[in-house]
C-alpha cells in the first residue's frame, strides 16, 4: 500500500513535490490537518490521481505484513521478533519516495528506538565529487532535519537518534543494542559487510530487511531496469540541474 501510493503520487512535472503517507493509529495525523487528503482501508487500491495531495492517511494492519516479493526481501540471522532497536543509514539527499518507504518500514518494525545514520562527506570529499550534479547535494543539516521531521510525524512515539556518520558502518560497528538493519534492495552486500564487522567485533549480527526501489513512472514500460532510472537522489539532482539551466541568467 505504501509503495503503491508513493509511486502513484510521483508527479513528472514536479518530482520534488512533498507527499507524505501517514498511518492511522501510528502517525501524528493531527499535524497534517491543513491541506490533508485521506485514503483509508488497508486493502484499498491507491487513487490514480494524487497530483494535488500533500498528506495521505491509510489504515494498515496493526502487525505489518512483510511478504517476500520483488519489493521486499528478509534475510534472517537471529529471527528476532518485535525488534526493540532498528538501524538504517544513507545519504538521504532530497528526501524522495524511496527514502520515505524505507524510513516508514524501519519505523513500523521498531518497537522502541530507531537509529538513522546520515552520511557526512566531511572526511571523504572525493566521494561527494564522484556524485553526478554534486553541487545540488543538500547540506548534512538539511538532510538530517528532513529525515527527523518525517519520522517524528510518521511514528512520534519512537525514540529517535538521527546523526551524521563518516563511513558506511556508523554506530553498527560497536553498539550492541540493535537487532535489525533496514536497507534498500541494491545495498544487500553492505548489510552483509556490517554483519561481518559486527561478528569480528564480538557483537550480535543483525536481521536484514531489504526494501525494493520505487520505479520512475516516467520510464514505466520502456525496458529500462538501471537503478539510475529509478526515483533516486541522483535523478532529482539532475532534475534540479536541468531546471537551473532553464532559468534566465
From TrEMBL:
The keyword Cytoplasm does not apply. GO terms for biological process: coenzyme A biosynthetic process. Residues 87-212 form the Cytidyltransferase-like domain. Keywords: Transferase. GO terms for molecular function: dephospho-CoA kinase activity. The keyword Transferase applies. PANTHER family: BIFUNCTIONAL COENZYME A SYNTHASE-RELATED, DEPHOSPHO-COA KINASE-RELATED. NCBIfam families: cyt_tran_rel. This is Nucleotidylyl transferase. It comes from Rhizoclosmatium globosum. The lineage of its organism: Eukaryota, Fungi, Fungi incertae sedis, Chytridiomycota, Chytridiomycota incertae sedis.
Amino acid at each position: 500500500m505504501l509503495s503503491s501510493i508513493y509511486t502513484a503520487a510521483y508527479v513528472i512535472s514536479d518530482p520534488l513535490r512533498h507527499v507524505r503517507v501517514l498511518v492511522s493509529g501510528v502517525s501524528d495525523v493531527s499535524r497534517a490537518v491543513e491541506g490533508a487528503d485521506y485514503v483509508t482501508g488497508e486493502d484499498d487500491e491507491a487513487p490514480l490521481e494524487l497530483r494535488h495531495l500533500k498528506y495521505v492517511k491509510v489504515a494498515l494492519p496493526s502487525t505489518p505484513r512483510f511478504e517476500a516479493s520483488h519489493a521486499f526481501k528478509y534475510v534472517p540471522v537471529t529471527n528476532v521478533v518485535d525488534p526493540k532497536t532498528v538501524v538504517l543509514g544513507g545519504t538521504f539527499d532530497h528526501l524522495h519516495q524511496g527514502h520515505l518507504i524505507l524510513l516508514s518500514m524501519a519505523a513500523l518494525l521498531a518497537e522502541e528506538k530507531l537509529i538513522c545514520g546520515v552520511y557526512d562527506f566531511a572526511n571523504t570529499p572525493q566521494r561527494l565529487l564522484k556524485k553526478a550534479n554534486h553541487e545540488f547535494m543538500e547540506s548534512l543539516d538539511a538532510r538530517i532535519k528532513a529525515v527527523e521531521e518525517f519520522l517524528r510525524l510518521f511514528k512520534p512515539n519512537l525514540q529517535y537518534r538521527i546523526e551524521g556518520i563518516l563511513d558506511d558502518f556508523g554506530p553498527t560497528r560497536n553498539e550492541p543494542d540493535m537487532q535489525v538493519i533496514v536497507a534498500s534492495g541494491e545495498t544487500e552486500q553492505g548489510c552483509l559487510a556490517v554483519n561481518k564487522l559486527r561478528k569480528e567485533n564480538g557483537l550480535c549480527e543483525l536481521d536484514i530487511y531489504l526494501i525494493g526501489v520505487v520505479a520512475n513512472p516516467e520510464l514505466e514500460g520502456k525496458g529500462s531496469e538501471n537503478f539510475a532510472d529509478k526515483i533516486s537522489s541522483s535523478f532529482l539532482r539532475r532534475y534540479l540541474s536541468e531546471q537551473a539551466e532553464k532559468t534566465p541568467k
